[in-house]
Specification:
The chain has 346 residues and is an alpha+beta fold. Helices cover 27% and strands 31% of the residues. The protein has 3 domains: 162 residues, Mago nashi protein (2-Layer Sandwich), CATH 3.30.1560; 88 residues, no CATH class; 77 residues, no CATH class. The longest helix is centred in the first third of the chain and has 16 residues. The radius of gyration is 26 Å and the shape is elongated. The N and C termini lie far apart (76 Å).
Length: 346
């Protein structure tokens, strides 16, 4: 099979890194190829002159092969850690079955370990197969020595071992034209029927496009749920999120897609703390605000930074309201309701 330009470029970059490290002894090599649209290369080397082990990692997408030394991120590793890795392999090694499909282009994981005359190489797709569960400890060792932002890969790699594959699959970006593709192909039949009913019963209470590629919505079900749809219109890619407990494409997401396609938008209220140094318009332009659903008793109901719906007090401990309404509806409903509450509080 003929490799794509992207494949050849990734392989060329890895070859350049290997050449750069030619004077060291390679102990371990890990490649995550197009894993969540990320290309990560990790290697563990022994430097003979200084008798030290070093774990290095590279973002291959940002790597310039002419300036490899400027792209190196690394952590010094103790000999005990290296010894532990090979103890795991020696104790549990079995000739692996094939867990790798050469037709697959994305989510490829390749782990190779080198111990004198021995070489251990494992290739699989997305998740550590249950038959290779013993590799789990090696991945934990590797990622515990990497930055926290990369540790999300470790959690996902373990998805099959933890029986959480469905949860991860439904949160991944996938190829989809939000406005033209058949949504019934990605939803189960019972979900389709329930999603249509939710849409027809006007349970999508808020829907707004925030920034250039994200739709935020509130759907009323058993309780209120936040749905976020990230849409890459140019590349026809989509990613979905719902705060409900379901770990699959749910009825709330289905209802929101129907609402988007039918242009049934209803903007959120927008609020933030008062600050005389920043104008209201600047806050809106910089997305420096909270999406608000309204007022519940003496609390604003908002979407917090964790993607949850939260109640926050209108008044501080001194009985003062430090909030301002940045954006209201045409009837100024939120502003008038807030003024009534402030008046009653006095």
């Amino acid at each position: 099979m003929r490799k794509s330009f992207k494949d050849n470029l990734i392989n060329k970059k890895i070859a350049s890194i290997r050449k750069y490290y030619r004077k060291s002894r390679l102990i371990l090599e890990l490649q995550l190829i197009l894993y969540n649209n990320y290309n990560l290369y990790i290697r563990l080397d022994y430097f003979r002159k200084i008798k030290t082990y070093r774990l290095s990692w590279f973002d291959l997408d940002d790597l310039d092969i002419n300036y490899i030394e400027k792209s190196i991120s690394f952590e010094w590793i103790s000999e005990e850690i290296v010894t532990t890795i090979f103890k795991i392999l020696d104790m549990k090694y079995k000739e692996p079955e094939v867990f790798y499909d050469y037709e697959v282009k994305e989510g490829i994981v390749i782990l190779s370990c080198f111990d004198n005359d021995k070489e251990y190489t494992y290739k699989f797709y997305k998740y550590i197969p249950k038959k290779l569960a013993f590799l789990s400890d090696i991945f934990i060792i590797i990622f515990s020595n990497l930055p926290r932002k990369l540790q999300g890969f470790l959690i996902e790699l373990h998805a099959e071992l933890e029986n959480d594959v469905t949860r991860y699959e439904c949160k991944k970006e996938f190829s989809f034209d939000l406005f033209h593709d058949d949504i019934n192909k990605i939803f189960a039949f019972p979900i389709i029927e329930r999603g249509k009913k939710y849409y027809e019963e006007n349970k999508v209470k808020f829907l707004e496009k925030i920034e250039d590629d994200r739709y935020f919505a509130i759907v009323e079900g058993t309780e209120k749920y936040l749905v976020v749809i990230k849409n890459d219109e140019k590349n026809k890619k989509m990613q979905v999120y719902c705060s409900c407990p379901c770990e699959f494409y749910c009825k709330h997401i289905y209802a929101v897609i129907l609402a988007i396609r039918n242009n049934n938008f209803n903007r959120f209220y927008k609020i933030n703390y008062k600050n005389s140094n920043i104008s209201m318009w600047e806050r809106i332009l910089n997305f420096d605000y909270s999406l608000c659903l309204g007022i519940v008793e003496k609390n604003f109901e908002i979407v917090n930074d964790d993607g949850d719906i939260e109640l926050v007090p209108i008044f501080d401990s001194n009985g003062k309201c430090n909030w301002q309404v940045l954006e209201d509806d045409e009837d100024m409903s939120l502003t008038r309701f807030l003024q009534d509450i402030i008046h009653d509080e006095k």
